[in-house]
Amino acid sequence: MIAFALLIACVIGCKSGNQTSSSSNAANKPEVSRSSDDRSGNAAAAPDIAGQYSVVGTNVNGTSYKGDLEVIKHGDVYQFRWSGGASYDGVGVQLGDVVAVAFTTGENGKGCGVVDYTIIGDGASLDGKWGYWGTDESGTEKATRTLGSGLIGTYDATGANPDGRPYKVQIVIVPLGSGYKFSWSNNTEGFGVRRGDNVAVGIGGGRCGFVSYQDKSDGSLDGVWGGYGSDKTETEKATKK
User: Fold this and answer.
1) 37: CB partners within 8 A, 6+ apart
2) Could you tell me if 57 and 187 are in contact, meaning their C-beta atoms sit under 8 angstroms apart?
3) Left (φ > 0), alpha (ψ -120 to 50) or beta: where does 62 sit?
4) CA separation (Å) from 118 to 37, 62, 74, 91?
5) What would the pLDDT profile of 146-171 be if each residue is shown by its tens digit?
6) Across the strands, what pairs with 162?
7) What per-residue confidence (pLDDT) applies to 6?
């Protein structure tokens, strides 16, 4: 599964920076091959979000920021590159109208990964797609709740890595601040934000941030972001140029 220490916490702290996200690194996911239901239904219906955007958002300290965002398609994933002050780079995966992105500062998003889950039956099961920066293919994961209620609880999961290798893992999900802490039994952790029947989880430790975007009918991306060790979230909107 996802072999990074991940707890994405807060910040683009002046996220007027640019993230460039290439796909994520399956190697970092210890042999976890996420089950390959690449959500063919959602994937087929999902619009291509590649392009140039202008972004405006709010930092965790309440200040606002502006910048530019370039989204580049790489196989099954997207690379996200922010600029306009600092620069940021990350990787994104898409399920239907939700795009989950993990990013970090600098010219590449190495070490960051992301999982995008569809929540089924109010948390009875999770159907996910994941990626790591540097890998153009995505993996899949399905999880079934064995203890708990809603999204909170313990799950048994099976998945497939981008190279097709299968894996099994357990996941524990607990509430944390404005989101949820995900702990996988392979010593990986992440921070997730729920929006309706979707939860986007960033992984990669304190060096990575994450964004959960909703692709709107006008082509804009409506985002909630956080990271770098914080359990708080803020907002960002990207408008296509």
Assistant:
1) 127, 140, 142
2) no
3) left
4) 11, 30, 22, 18
5) 999 999 999 999 999 989 999 999 99
6) none
7) 32
pLDDT in the model for residue 39: 35
CB 203 within 8 A of CB 2: yes
Report phi then psi at 40, rounded to 5.
-50, -40
The continuous run of DSSP H or E covering 40 comes out as: helix 40-45
Residues 133 and 108 sit within 8 Å (Cβ to Cβ)? yes
Classify residue 146 as exposed, middle or buried by CB count within 10 Å of its CB (0-12, 13-18, 19+). exposed
Give 16's contacts (C-beta < 8 A, 6+ positions apart): 55, 65, 66, 67, 82, 84, 85, 86
The encoded tokens of residue 116 equal: 């995008």
pLDDT of residue 29: 35
Q: Which is it for strands 51-58 and 64-74: parallel, antiparallel or unpaired?
A: antiparallel
Handedness of CA 200, 204, 205, 210 (dihedral sign): negative
Centre a 10 Å sphere on the Cβ of residue 112 and count the other Cβ atoms it contains: 35
Q: What is the dihedral of CA 113, 69, 20, 157, to 10 degrees?
A: 10
Residues of the chain with pLDDT under 70: 1-45, 228-230
Q: For residue 37, give the nearest of 153, 157, 124 by alpha carbon.
A: 157
User: What CA–CA distance (Å, rounded) separates 75 from 130?
Assistant: 13
Alpha helix segments (H runs only) across 147-194: none
Return the residue matching tokens 């196989």: 75
Element (H, E) at 44: helix 40-45
